[in-house]
Every structure is written in C-alpha cells, then in structure tokens.
Amino acid sequence: MIQTTTPSVEGQTITEYLGVVTGEAILGANIVRDLFAGIRDIVGGRSAAYEEELRKAREIAMEELAAEASDRGADAVVGIDLDYETVGQGGSMLMVTASGTAVRLGA
To answer: Are 47 and 40 in contact (CB under 8 A)?
Structure first.
C-alpha cells in the first residue's frame, strides 16, 4: 500500500477516489516514564520514553489507515495528515490521528 502526504503518486494516475480513511491510536503514558520525563524536562534533553510512545502510536494509526484503505480496495492513500494530541486528565494519554484519501491507481 502506497502511503504519501502528497496529493498524487508520481508516475501514477489516480483513477478513482474511494473516500477519506482514518486511523487513530491513544496510548497511556506510564507513571514511571512520566516521572523520568518530568526530571528530564527540568534538566534538559529529550524524553526517549515519550518519543517511543509517539512512535508506537503513529505506527498503529498508519496501520489502521492502510487497513481501512485496503478494505475499500485502494492501491494507495494520498494527502495523509498526522495530528498529535495529549488527552485525558492532565494530558496523561497520547493520541495520534492519521487521515488521508484512499485511491485506486491506473497504469
């Protein structure tokens, strides 16, 4: 499944638009990771724990996006947009939403 943020696939013709497809992932952050992330925020540097959670959430959202597109008979998803949010009490959960347009490609 071709997945791209661009509105088209280079060298391919879009023959049919199959509609908007989405994928979402919400992951809770571990309290121990929160503690260490807070300490890291105070002393500076990157929070590897949060980066890993965001990476996992993005992969899940993209897999769901591709699965929905495949169910519709798509060859590709174009115009993909990724959104990142914190949700829950005190932003305790990480949410990633992926959306795009499922399409069929011609020769």
So the answer is: yes
Query: CA distances (Å), 100 to each of 37, 51, 67, in order?
Result: 32, 23, 12
Helix ranges (H only) for the chain are 31-43, 48-71
Choose among 94, 70, 92: nearest CA to 82.
Answer: 94
Q: What is the rounded distance in angstroms from the CA atom of residue 39 to the CA atom of residue 55? A: 21
Indicate the pTM of the whole model: 0.80
List, for residues 59-89, the tens digit of each pLDDT value: 999 999 999 999 999 999 999 999 998 887 7
Lookup: tokens for 92: 């305790």
